[in-house]
Amino acid sequence: MKVHKLLFALPLVVMSLAVAQQQPPPSSDAPQPYLPASVTAAASNASGVPTTPAAAPAGYVLGPGDQISVFVNEIADQFADKVFRIDSSGDVSMPVIGHLHAAGLTTSELEKAARIGLSHELKDPQVSISIAGFGSQSVSVLGAVATPGQRQLEGHKTLFEILSLAGGLRPDAGYMVTITRDLRWGAIPLPQAVTDPSGKMSVASIKVKSIMTSSNPAENILILPGDTISVPVADLVYAVGCVNRPGAFPLNGHETLSALQVVSLSGGAQKTAALNKAKILRAVSGTTTRTEIPVDLKLLMAGKGPDIPLQPEDILFIPNSNAKSAAYRTLDAVISAAGFAATRVY
Length: 346
Prior knowledge:
Blueprint: E1 3-4, H1 10-22, H2 37-44, E2 67-72, E3 84-85, E4 91-94, E5 98-101, H3 107-118, E6 127-133, E7 138-143, E8 149-152, H4 159-165, E9 176-182, E10 194-195, E11 201-207, H5 208-213, E12 228-231, E13 236-241, E14 247-250, E15 257-258, H6 259-265, E16 278-283, E17 290-295, H7 297-301, E18 309-310, E19 315-318, H8 322-345
Parallel strand pairs: 7-12, 13-19
Antiparallel strand pairs: 1-17, 2-3, 2-6, 4-5, 7-8, 9-11, 9-12, 10-11, 13-14, 15-18, 16-17, 16-19
């Protein structure tokens, strides 16, 4: 097994070329979210998406922007189908009850304050208050989105809606989106959700392709306060040597790219390429060296062998064929001589 140390630095050399080739032309318009119309439609599609927020964890403290639903048994019609928003001062105004300061209280504490407020109108009023929407708590959107940062939850917000509010995915986004949630809110309602080693967080990852195609509406889950949505930058693979456009190519929505796909992305092999002597140069973990994996692209292009997947940071190297180069130089010389002779005869 041969090892090449010098080629380990090739990603850095070709990176700037690849970025220059793949960047869209400058535009004065604001960048458009990297979310198609199908995603917008999925975000408003109730299929597979909860229509009410999950129950708040025990001890959840209300704050400005939160929305509450109120039920008073004796005067239920006064509160039917109504949602009350806690204002920026932390106050909420409700029929009969009047103004109450809700910020800093749990729902049970606000129920007690509401009963006191109703006591001059009703004897032993029964009050039930639930959270209809979160506005005082934020979620974090990190990584390869147009505008990463914190977003306030105002009402119900799904994963697609939060990504759209963050400007959508950047073109260099990786193939997975990861959601992390405090287990006080319960586990993330996806079959692939796992508990992290601390035992305090639920973690689930969703493929970008699933988001882009809206192929599974059930994955468009409701986002809850404190959630973190992480979108990593795509891993890269490289093509160097006798290709028409050497450079780095992001995996984007793909978990991997095959050798033939990388050849295609690089504009195809040059006519003097030694296709049967191509190599994948793969980093050896914990070292600064790379191992060689022979790849006979000539056979692959003829459909006589299985295509080979490249791992992140792999380099596909296609060497030059000295014999082909000499043959083409000879042919060029013959053509030039023939052209010169024809000119003299004319």
